[in-house]
Amino acid sequence: MSYRLSTRSRARLQGVHPALVAVVEAAILITPVDFMVTEGLRSPARQAALVRAGASRTLNSRHLTGHAVDVAALVEGRVRWDWPLYGRIAEAFRAAAAARGTPIVWGGDWPTLRDGPHFELDRKAFA
Ligand SMILES: [Zn+2]
Asked: Hey, what domains does the chain have and what are their CATH numbers?
């Protein structure tokens, strides 16, 4: 079966770069693990609050420009943070991005402070 984005997830894609929205919309159709979009475009004030809280390390986040989204895995409609679920979602994102020729970066591939829920457009292609 294939999943679909909820109304709330779609609302959270407002202001996100169309190339990344297209990847999210394609990924939901092929992912073996359902997901919701938890955050897309972020205000500077919210970014500063996240840094203060220790949830983010940078004031130069890709979320500020609409080049990043965060997702949460859903199992039977409930959010799960189990790491393996995010690898499976990332595979769907990778396939969806490759099919569109849209280079993306998964936060789960970062060498330090891996960020499994985070996907962004590659800075090399999308400044
Ligand atoms: Zn993020």
From this structure: 7-121 (3.30.1380.10)
